[in-house]
Amino acid sequence: MLLITRTFSSFFFFVTIPLVLITFTSSHAHPHPIAISSRSMADMERFISAGRGSNITGISEFKKYLWRFGYYLNDHNINITSTCFTDEFDAIFESALISYQRKLGLQVTGKLDSLTISQMITPRCGVPDNNGHTHMHSVKNFVYFPGKPRWSGPMPTTLTYAFSPEYTIHTLSLHQIRRAFRRAFTRWSNVIPLTFVESDDYGFAEIKIGFYSGDHGDGEPFDGVLGVLAHSFSPESGRLHLDAAETWAVDFGESWSEVAVDLESVATHEIGHVLGLSHSSVKEAVMYPSLRPREKRSRLHIDDVRGVQSLYGSNPHFTSDLSSLQSDISVNQAPPPPLPRFPFIIVLLCGYVLSFFIVSGP
Ligand SMILES: [Zn+2]
Ligand SMILES: [Zn+2]
């Protein structure tokens, strides 16, 4: 029985979850999914001690993963394709792995340690990590999209947003959705000279919000429960898409699902993309690419604030001490759901968000 449970758990963990690691982004969308192969727990454990010189079947999948997120081309300027990777833990892979660990805020070991593997099998945003304009200052880890696009025009200004009347969900009321987004927009408008106003006119709204299932026409199909949670487009596209298959929650005290995802946290992150921010290396930042189930991380971190203010300037009414925003993270304290079937899922970072490099038209 134990074996069956373990096998099933392993299947869920290493088959279902990695399937979400398949998205690709940007104007040069990849036609084929890239996933770390499904493996049993025993197989995955073999990688944990892997270091330079190791040769283990499946290392190539990790290479593809790092290649896909920009850790090969940027660091080595080598035009490698995903089809030419071997299973040897070579120096280039080690270097790419170190860059990855550094970028994601992991302990830099240069090895496939358990935390690194956990992060790599975690659903995440499809934006290559080394494809943005990163501020390397010691306290600035926010990143822009290439070209530093932002909503143009003199500040202060107002942007309208609207919810698709067609692409919506029914597990939350429109009132609950609107409240969550209103709070998310307000977090940003509190710190920059931008005001967001909800509009009933979806067609003319500058920011268009919708819940979509599977393939929804932009080349980045959603993938069902967990994994890909949402994706959005850089300025001035205004498109903000959420995966309708998620168990979206606005109150974990009422939503007992172990795969519940906090709508406000994801909304706040996606609005950050809509405004022009890419992913941050700061784990506590709203713009860090991942979010665990039942985790709430919607308050702006000092890194988020500095990033967005460098694009738009400060809201003249913003008087908060930036230092007080440090470690401004809240985790829901609601008790765990009764008799969880997949307790291991709590270790997963499931906040997958994907954004795109869209060059605004003339
Ligand atoms: Zn989409
Ligand atoms: Zn993102």
UniProtKB/TrEMBL annotation:
Leader peptide range in chain numbering: 1-29
Keyword Membrane found: yes
Peptidase metallopeptidase domain boundaries: 147-314
Regions that span the bilayer: 342-359
Keywords noted in UniProt: Hydrolase, Membrane, Metal-binding, Metalloprotease, Protease, Signal, Transmembrane, Transmembrane helix, Zinc
UniProt-listed InterPro entries: M10A_MMP, MetalloPept_cat_dom_sf, Pept_M10_metallopeptidase, Pept_M10A, Peptidase_Metallo, Peptidoglycan-bd-like, PGBD-like_sf
Pfam families hit by this protein: Peptidase_M10, PG_binding_1
Family: Belongs to the peptidase M10A family. Matrix metalloproteinases (MMPs) subfamily.
UniProt protein name: Peptidase metallopeptidase domain-containing protein
Organism: Stylosanthes scabra
